[in-house]
Write a structure and sequence with these properties.
73% helix, globular, 2 domains
């Protein structure tokens, strides 16, 4: 199967059919990973969107691309950014990349002009890292000031509040 055929599948099939295709053509999984962190729209964001539905927790096929995925985050648009964050949430992040990922996610969270779903997924990564490094708990106080939270939908705000309560109770 050629690269262009895989890209055609990404833009023409529904998600269930794409997942089935990847499961039946495992060689295309790596194509999806590589496409997920470049700027070739609409295929790139759809590859990232597909990827988190096809991968295992801490998937070794994704692990070797963590650096590239994290480095791409500041360069991609919100829809692709959100999907890559979901991929990264499913991964154990190496210590050498956590600081950079944390900073990228804090910047996304603080940008109240970003889509709430992007900010929510960024916050989920922040929380994941804070759970690993409890000394960062003081960051939550600053990041959850009203001007960061009040602009969120009720559902996202509720989710953020649950995560905050969970961290503070530990």
């Amino acid at each position: 199967m050629g690269k262009n055929n895989f890209e055609e599948i990404l833009i023409s099939l529904n998600k269930a059919d794409m997942i089935s295709f990847i499961n039946n053509n495992p060689e295309c999984f790596e194509k999806a990973v590589k496409l997920s962190f470049v700027d070739k729209q609409p295929c790139s964001w759809r590859a990232a969107w597909l990827l988190w539905s096809c991968m295992e927790e801490n998937d070794k096929r994704v692990r070797k691309y963590l650096k590239e995925i994290i480095n791409a985050l500041p360069l991609v648009k919100d829809n692709q950014f959100r999907e890559l964050l979901i991929v990264l949430r499913k991964m154990e992040i190496d210590d050498k990349y956590e600081g950079k990922l944390f900073n990228i996610c804090v910047n996304a969270w603080e940008n109240i002009g970003k889509q709430p779903s992007v900010r929510h997924n960024a916050f989920r990564i922040i929380v994941k890292i804070i759970k690993k490094y409890p000394e960062l708990i003081n960051e939550i106080t600053f990041l959850t000031e009203p001007h960061y939270v009040d602009c969120l939908s009720a559902g996202v705000k509720n989710s953020v509040n649950k995560m905050i309560s969970e961290i503070r109770s530990k």
